[in-house]
Structure formats: structure tokens, C-alpha cells
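STRUCTURE:
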């Protein structure tokens, strides 16, 4: 039997899973780390925390599995996208990584748009200038921390920093690089035009691979520390959503998924480049060679529910600890007892600004319609519904672009919730399915590693072999009708509050 490792470098934790070649889980381990917010709207993490988490969890799964190291053929890494990792001449981290949900770079986005032109920028990078993307973060460091910028010799994405630690190679791949705003997305290579206009030295950037290509092998000192073989191949891997797509079988035209993690995403596979000229959704290279994906992003999806849980459900957290359960079990039970529409309460999930469809770093969360009749149960359901309305916005834009979705899968932490899956099915007015495999991103990059090392002939063949449908939700007609009414009001709230959001930030 041959084995593959998938590493999922998330915002809250890194999870490493060892799979056999049939997709069965042999061993898994995870390690959490903090997120730092030095100022309102800022978000940073220490790359050294990712390094330590990756090395520790790899060592744990190798040791626990008792698998011979020579039988572990390949390793793939999935990672949170857009984060800026800057290394000096010696390969040491210069400053904490400014990560995907950071909102400090509004002025730098204006600078990018001015230098390249909005339309031309979208033509090349398939996206408008966004605060979450890496290019604006590079300019922010150059503008505000010139001493750090002067020291910089290498710019990497989070997962690619872990790759550097494992292999000593400065490499990235097309799906993650698409989110840097420096890649020519239609042509799957760095854009000389963008780099020249932004005055970013191309030598700072890593070599770009396809997601299934081998980028290096394990360094001897890392092999010694983790129990891996120096012959274990490390493939390109993928950004978190591109990896989740492979791990849920979204590798052909007509297939899409919704994931609810810290952020929320509606992601559709496309065999051709499809770009929204209005820049409301993202088009990136996907992990299947020669294909792309279109995705809308909700910044504060699972984050909204986690925020509510941590601040207003302490009793559930304590009860879960006592009874050996998950606090979300009690939350799901509460939500199931609350009617569609949360007794006329609507939540706007803008805790970290918003990307799709508003592209607004200044907007913030709102409970609309709050009255004395409302209980915690109503507010919990409103949070879930508000996130789902935001995801429906994403889905509606994909339809408007002509992206046909015949099959919707659900994944991420929110995808585990039967009540949340039913909401999505009702709002999308289509069936929502899950696969039996629960390690979406980690499995996805393990599959990519399997293709890169010759265990599978193609990504499509691997998914057909490994993945099986688990659960299926069918829309409830009356619920769909109700949600259409609430969604109409939801869509009217952001325009009504847009100027007030800006005024609030200026105080």
C-alpha cells in the first residue's frame, strides 16, 4: 500500500492527515495557533507558528501510523490564501504575516488601480484590487515599513513558506498565486506588466508550478525531525478552496461547492476563463491543470457563528466540555427550534468587511429588526441565515455570469451542520450534497500528491476512485418562498447603510 500526506494550513490551526491510496484516513493531527489584531481591521499571524504546527503534526501522524517512511510517496499542502510572508537573505521571517482577512490596505488598492487601470487589472489578474490580496500588502509594507521592505529577498504565501521549510525550495502554484494579484490568470504565469507598473522585482517571487507538479523533496534535517523519507515528493498543492474542490470532487464543468469555514465560499469549476467585468467574484486558476474556477467570498461566515458562540454561548461551551460534546451541537438544536426568518430578524455578516458582492472593507455586522421578543435562539438562527443570504448573493452572480451549476456540494465546518445545509438548499433552490470524506482540503492536496507521484493518472480519475456521496438535502418549497422575501430585504440593507459605514470608520 502506498500513502500520501495532506497538510491543511488554516487560519485557526494546521491539520495534517495521512491517507492510504484509496483515500482512507490512517492518522491525523492538528495544532492551533493565535491570530493577532494589533489594530481594528488588521489581522496577522506568525509564520513560525505555521512551521512548528506543520512539523509537529507531520511527526505525530508518521509516528502514530507506524507506516514505513519509504511508503509515504507524496505530500501536498493546502493553505489560507493571500497572506504575505517576507523573508530576508538568510531565509528568516522579517515581520508577522499580514493574512487574508486584513483590511488595512485600502489606499494601496487605490494606488494599484491608478497605476494599472481597473479594467486592465481585471483583464490580467481576473480581479479588481482588493484589500485581502497580497499585492496591496506588499505595497503597504513598502509604504509604511521601508526598512522591512529593503531587507526582503523572498515573498511567499503561507503554505509556500511551509514548503520552503520542508524542501528548501522557493515555489508556488497557480491556484494560490492567482490570489496575489500579480499573476496573469488566463496565461497561468507572473504578469510582467503588473510587476513593472507596481515596481515589484520579479526575483522576489517564487517559481510557479501547476498544482500536481513535484516542487521538491524533503530536506535531510526535516526528514530526521518528522520521520519522513528524503525521497517523499512535495507537489505544488493548492489554495484552501482549490484544495477543497478536489477533496469534494469539484473537478468538472457543472460542479460547485459551498464551504463555510472562517470565511464562506461558493466555488464553481470552469473549463474556460470566465471573468466578471464588475469584479464582484474571483476567477482563479484551479488545481486541475488547464482549468479555472469562479468563486464568491463571504469574509465572516463561520467566523460570525464562532464570534457569537465565544461571546454569548459560554454556557454551551462549558456544557460541551463536561459532556464531551461540541458546543455547536447545542447551537444546531436551538436553531432547529426557530422558524424560517428567525422571527423577522436579519443579520449582516460583515464582521471583517466584505468581498462579494460589495468589496467594502468598512462595512460591519448588523442585527436588523431586533425586538424585545427575540431570544438567543433567534439570534443564532439569524446569524446562520445571514451568512447563507451572503452565500446566495455569490451563487446568484455565478448564475448571472452564465456559470451553470448542476450539482452543489457542502463542505467546511458549516457543511457538517444538517440545519445549515438545509438552509443552503432552500435558498439556492437546489439539492445540496456532501461526500463521505470529511477532510476536504487535506484530502484534496493528498490527491494532487498522488497524481504528481504517479499513483493516479489524473485528478478526475482520482476523485472518481476516492470520493463517495454521503448525504443529500432537497429544497423545501415553502422555505424557499419565505427566504426569497427575506433575501430581498437583506439585499437592500447594505446600500442603505453604505455611507454610515464609512462615516463610522472616520470617527
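SEQUENCE:
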Amino acid at each position: 500500500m502506498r500513502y500520501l500526506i495532506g497538510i491543511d494550513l488554516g487560519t485557526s490551526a494546521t491539520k495534517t492527515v495521512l491517507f492510504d491510496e484509496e483515500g482512507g484516513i490512517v492518522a491525523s493531527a492538528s495544532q492551533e495557533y493565535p491570530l493577532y489584531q494589533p489594530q481594528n481591521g488588521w489581522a496577522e499571524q506568525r509564520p513560525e507558528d505555521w512551521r512548528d504546527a506543520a512539523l509537529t503534526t507531520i511527526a505525530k501522524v508518521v509516528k502514530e501510523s507506524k507506516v514505513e517512511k519509504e511508503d509515504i510517496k507524496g505530500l501536498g499542502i493546502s493553505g489560507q490564501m493571500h497572506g504575505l510572508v517576507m523573508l530576508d537573505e538568510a531565509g528568516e521571517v522579517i515581520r508577522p504575516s499580514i493574512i487574508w482577512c486584513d483590511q488595512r490596505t485600502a489606499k494601496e488598492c487605490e494606488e494599484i488601480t491608478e497605476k494599472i487601470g481597473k479594467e486592465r487589472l481585471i483583464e490580467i489578474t481576473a480581479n479588481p484590487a482588493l484589500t485581502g490580496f497580497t499585492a496591496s500588502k506588499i505595497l503597504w509594507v513598502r509604504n509604511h515599513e521601508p526598512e522591512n521592505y529593503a531587507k526582503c529577498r523572498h515573498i511567499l504565501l503561507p503554505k509556500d513558506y511551509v514548503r520552503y521549510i520542508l524542501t528548501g525550495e522557493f515555489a508556488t502554484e497557480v491556484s494560490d498565486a492567482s490570489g496575489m494579484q500579480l499573476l496573469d490568470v488566463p496565461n497561468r504565469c507572473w504578469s510582467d506588466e503588473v510587476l513593472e507598473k507596481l515596481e515589484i522585482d520579479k526575483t522576489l517571487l517564487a517559481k510557479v508550478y501547476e498544482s500536481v507538479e513535484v516542487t521538491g523533496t524533503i530536506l535531510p534535517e526535516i526528514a530526521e525531525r518528522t520521520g519522513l523519507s528524503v525521497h517523499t515528493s512535495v507537489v505544488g498543492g493548492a489554495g484552501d478552496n482549490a484544495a477543497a474542490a478536489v477533496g469534494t470532487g469539484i473537478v468538472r464543468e457543472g460542479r460547485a461547492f459551498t464551504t463555510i469555514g472562517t470565511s464562506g465560499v461558493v466555488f464553481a469549476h470552469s473549463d474556460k476563463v470566465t471573468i466578471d467585468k464588475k469584479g464582484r467574484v474571483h476567477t482563479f486558476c484551479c488545481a486541475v491543470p488547464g482549468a479555472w474556477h469562479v468563486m464568491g467570498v463571504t469574509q465572516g461566515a463561520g467566523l460570525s457563528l464562532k464570534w457569537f458562540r465565544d461571546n454569548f454561548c459560554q454556557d454551551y461551551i462549558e456544557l460541551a466540555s463536561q459532556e464531551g460534546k461540541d458546543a455547536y451541537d447545542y447551537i444546531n438544536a436551538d436553531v432547529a427550534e426557530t422558524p424560517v426568518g428567525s422571527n423577522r430578524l436579519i443579520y449582516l455578516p460583515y464582521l471583517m468587511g466584505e468581498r462579494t458582492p460589495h468589496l467594502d472593507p468598512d462595512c460591519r455586522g448588523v442585527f436588523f429588526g431586533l425586538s424585545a421578543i427575540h431570544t438567543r435562539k433567534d439570534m443564532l438562527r439569524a446569524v446562520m441565515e445571514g451568512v447563507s443570504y451572503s452565500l446566495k448573493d455569490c451563487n446568484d452572480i455565478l448564475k448571472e455570469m452564465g456559470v451553470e451549476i448542476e450539482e452543489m456540494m457542502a463542505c467546511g465546518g458549516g457543511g457538517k451542520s444538517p440545519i445549515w445545509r438545509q438552509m443552503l438548499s432552500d435558498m439556492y433552490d437546489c439539492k445540496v450534497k456532501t461526500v463521505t470524506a470529511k477532510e476536504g482540503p487535506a484530502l484534496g492536496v493528498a490527491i494532487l500528491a498522488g497524481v504528481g507521484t504517479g499513483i493516479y493518472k489524473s485528478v478526475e480519475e482520482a476523485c472518481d476512485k476516492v470520493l463517495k456521496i454521503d448525504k443529500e438535502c432537497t429544497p423545501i418549497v415553502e422555505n424557499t418562498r419565505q427566504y426569497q422575501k427575506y433575501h430581498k430585504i437583506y439585499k437592500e440593507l447594505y446600500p442603505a447603510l453604505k455611507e454610515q459605514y464609512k462615516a463610522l470608520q472616520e470617527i
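REMARK: The first strand starts at residue 3 and ends at 9.
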